[in-house]
Design a protein that fits this description.
Distance between the termini: 40 Å
Shape: globular
Number of helices: 16
Structural class: alpha+beta
Radius of gyration: 25 Å
Strand order of the largest sheet: 26-25-23-19-14-13-12-28-27
Largest sheet: 9 strands, parallel
Number of strands: 36
Bound molecules: ligand MIG
Helix content: 25-40%
Length: about 625
């Protein structure tokens, strides 16, 4: 059952593809609050679990926190935060009833999931221009399937997208990349992709390659292809505002960059320095922007990752000027005022980055209307990807590009994948990765993953191996790292063979994973599910927050605690425990329903095969002689 309600004049976000007749009156569950802005409220029963909200902080069960979606470039994914880079406004209330709620709205929106009032879910947004979809089905899985049917089929990457990706901000030259590939080859560590971060560009300008550091780039792309490796370059949202540079000049001449209400170009700072933003909501501008990706295709590139597309802004020219006027240099001359003027300067500067007030300063043109950026903010990453995908379709007809984005909105799941941004080399972020996967899947993102080993901070060997032990099951499998932290390629660690064996395991799993992923996409299903999806009557299963079902045949229970020799696992039914000693040797044990303690060394990935589901995994690991 689906109900659709419209309030005010909503933006066509292109999240939903199915036509649903509009309903009038009050929704059959919960109610709309009178007053300014948008407000929705519904009861939560004591035993209800609330799933969803896609890319976010905290656990599988979202209850007990306020989440706010206003896409932001914030690398501190701590539990005190309220949101990350994406706005996935879908919730699933699982209890006696099974209810799905989707708030289709591209501006800032908050979800108080029983935090302020234990037994209440309340949703609020500053403007009452919203479409609400209310779904009710007989089970959690059915709710998700109905929602996914509404939003359309998920992106399936080319198969090589499931291969192992090695990345680091700081591979500066072709020689750096050659080294990485050579070391993987020599050690027999499978590798499909090396990501190129902003280092490959000429002065951080999109659609350029530094000819100094990457001479004859097309030949280099070819050379890597011959090694079985594809290069995946990054593209940032900000375009360098550099006079005389053809991309900027052309976009400016044609009026494709975002402007302020007074018609001036909106200038802000990001990696290339003074930058502008393409109005990706304007069809013509988007088409032009998409065509720029043709440059990469002409070099032999078959995909890319879109970054900084929240969009991230370090400062805006207007904000800088205003602060300068408020605290003019003359002030510093007066010694007695130094402290106060410095304090004002400092707090002003601290507000520069990603300030929503800046988002009111410039506008977009969409479907014949003018919107402030703030109104459409959460859609920017999606529409940037839409332009990119169309560009790739034109430049590489008939071939699916490999695409993933940092920022996203529901709807983008039809076009590309996502990676979950700047996590850290923390054990808690391995857990966060585990807990985010089902939520992302519910919102349509099947091709998804986190930076394995963590992006920020230094990764230790045990964390890397434990993370890989989970990562081998995750569709987007990338080891990526920040340039200021310890390199974390396999050869930086002592246990190189253990690392290699994990990657080899992954390659054995790819045919299985790819099939499961395609079947999830075709059936509008998740790849990763909370245990309660299949064991709804089991109280214990409903409370487990750190184990996942993978397809209909496996259960995962990763170890995410440092120095732990093992962990407790809840088995909701009898299962076969499989411990991978390496990529060709396994230990198995049949286990009874209940709580068990599992021991596994850092490099020993393990999983559970569900009762009667031995066949699929038996085909992958023939050594197990199961299910035939
Ligand atoms: O401000 O391009 O999330 O993966 O390495 C940081 C440099 C910009 C953020 C991305 C990260 C990437 C980094 N970028």
């Amino acid at each position: 059952m689906v109900e659709k309600y419209e309030y005010g004049s909503p933006v066509n976000t292109q999240a939903v593809v199915e036509e649903i007749p509009l309903q009038s009156g009050e929704p059959s569950f919960g109610r709309i609050l009178p007053g300014e802005g948008f407000g929705y409220i519904c009861p939560l029963e004591k035993q209800d679990v609330v799933y969803g909200l896609g890319e976010n902080v905290r656990g599988l069960n979202k209850r007990g926190w306020i989440y706010t979606h206003y896409n932001k470039d914030d690398p501190a994914h701590t539990e005190g935060k309220h949101g990350l880079y994406a706005a996935h406004n879908f919730l699933l209330i699982s209890g006696r009833r099974h209810i799905g709620l989707f708030f289709d709205y591209p501006g800032e929106i908050s979800f108080d999931v029983g935090a302020s009032r234990e037994k209440e879910l309340s949703v609020s947004a500053p403007q009452a221009d919203i479409v609400l979809y209310l779904i009710e089905e007989a089970s959690d899985r059915e709710v998700v399937k109905t929602f996914r049917r509404l939003i359309g089929k998920s992106y399936i990457p080319p198969k090589w997208g499931l291969g192992f990706q090695q990345s680091r901000w700081g591979y500066r030259t072709a020689q750096d990349v050659r080294e990485v590939v050579k070391k993987h080859k020599e050690a027999g560590v499978p590798l499909d992709i090396v990501c190129l971060d902003i280092d490959y560009m000429d002065g951080c300008r999109d659609f350029t390659v530094s000819s100094e550091r990457f001479p004859d780039f097309p030949a280099f792309v070819q050379e890597m292809r011959e090694q079985g490796v594809r290069l995946l370059p990054i593209i940032d949202a900000g375009i360098k505002a550099q006079e005389g540079w053809e991309v900027y000049e052309e976009g400016r001449k044609k009026g494709y960059f975002c402007r302020k209400k007074n018609g001036e170009e909106y200038i802000f700072g990001v990696w290339p320095g003074k930058s502008v933003l393409v109005d990706v909501f304007d069809q013509e501008a988007a088409k032009w922007f998409g065509e720029q990706y043709g440059f990469l295709i002409s070099q032999g590139i078959e995909g890319c990752w879109n970054d900084m597309n929240e969009p991230a802004m370090f400062w805006s020219l207007d904000a800088v000027k205003e602060l300068w006027e408020k605290v003019p240099p003359e002030e510093y001359a007066k010694e007695e005022k130094l402290t106060s003027s410095f304090a004002r300067l400092q707090s002003g500067i601290q507000r520069f980055q990603d300030n929503p007030a800046d988002h009111d300063r410039f506008v977009h043109h969409y479907e014949g209307r003018t919107y402030t950026h703030r109104q459409l903010h959460n859609l920017y990453g999606y529409f940037m990807m839409k332009a990119a995908r169309e560009g790739f379709e034109k430049g590489m007809p008939g071939k699916t590009p490999l695409l993933y984005s940092r920022s996203s909105y529901i709807g983008m799941h039809r076009l590309s994948g996502v990676w979950t941004g700047d996590n850290c080399s923390w054990w808690s972020h391995l857990l966060l990765n585990i807990q985010m996967m089902p939520a992302l899947n519910m919102c349509g993102f099947l091709y998804a993953g986190a930076d394995i080993g963590g992006f920020g901070d230094d990764c230790t060997q045990d964390l890397m191996l434990r993370w890989l032990s989970f990562g081998i099951f995750v569709p987007l499998m990338r080891n990526h790292c920040h340039l200021d932290y310890k390199p974390q390629e396999f050869y930086q660690f002592e246990k190189k063979e253990e690392y290699r064996e994990l990657i080899r395991l992954r390659y054995r799993l790819i045919p299985f994973l790819y099939r499961e992923m395609i079947s999830a996409a075709e059936n509008n299903d998740v790849l990763f599910a909370p245990l309660s999806f299949d064991f709804p009557e089991d109280e214990m299963a409903r409370s487990v927050d750190d184990q996942l079902l993978l397809g209909d045949s496996l259960m995962l229970a990763p170890i995410y605690v440092q120095n732990a020799p093992g962990r407790y696992v809840y088995l909701p039914e009898d299962m076969l425990f499989v411990k991978c000693l390496d990529s060709t040797h396994f230990e198995t044990e049949t286990m009874k329903k209940g709580i068990v303690y599992i021991k596994a060394k850092e490099h020993q990935a393990f999983f559970f095969v569900r009762k009667g589901q031995e066949k699929k995994i038996g085909e992958v690991f023939t050594e197990l002689s199961i299910g035939s």
